[in-house]
Amino acid sequence: MSRSGVTVADESLSAFNDLKLGKKHKFIIYTLNDKKTDIVVEKTSNEADYDTFLEEFPENECKYAIYDFEYELGGGEGKRSKIVFFTWSPDTAPIRSKMVYASSKDALRRALNGVATDIQGTDFSEVAYEVVLDKVNRKV
């Protein structure tokens, strides 16, 4: 349970394990349920296009997301894959929503074992492909 009292729904963990172990999803979008008591799965997708993933981030609403980020290593070393955790909290989202998401993030983040990198986004420039690529490359 988080500081905000929000818990992680079992379906949220199952979807993550399906992505991590079963490669059934390319990304997962998480949101808070209507009562703001549980972090639940809003959407899963097999769509590999990064721009399609970014289209799931609304301009005025907070979300969490997991993305199986594939990239090429320089020097012909082949492809790598890292699981990236996104906290999307746009500047235009309501302050109360941003506070609940910020205080609930740790509950979800701790429950998801195997995440390589965390990305905090308040606008689209902070979640751009090149920014994420740079961050995952630094951890190699």
Automatic annotation (TrEMBL):
This chain's source organism reads [Candida] railenensis
The protein's job, in short, is: Controls reversibly actin polymerization and depolymerization in a pH-sensitive manner. It has the ability to bind G- and F-actin in a 1:1 ratio of cofilin to actin. Binding to F-actin is regulated by tropomyosin. It is the major component of intranuclear and cytoplasmic actin rods. Required for accumulation of actin at the cell division site via depolymerizing actin at the cell ends. In association with myosin II has a role in the assembly of the contractile ring via severing actin filaments. Involved in the maintenance of the contractile ring once formed.
Q: Which Gene3D superfamilies match?
A: Severin
Which gene name belongs to this protein?
Answer: COF1
Write out the annotated subcellular location: Cytoplasm, Cytoskeleton; Nucleus matrix
Q: Which UniProt keywords apply?
A: Actin-binding, Cytoplasm, Cytoskeleton, Nucleus
Q: What is this protein called?
A: Cofilin
GO MF term list:
actin binding
Family classification: Belongs to the actin-binding proteins ADF family.
**GO biological process annotation, one example:** actin filament depolymerization
Q: Which PANTHER family match?
A: COFILIN-RELATED (PTHR11913)
The root-end lineage is: Eukaryota, Fungi, Dikarya, Ascomycota, Saccharomycotina
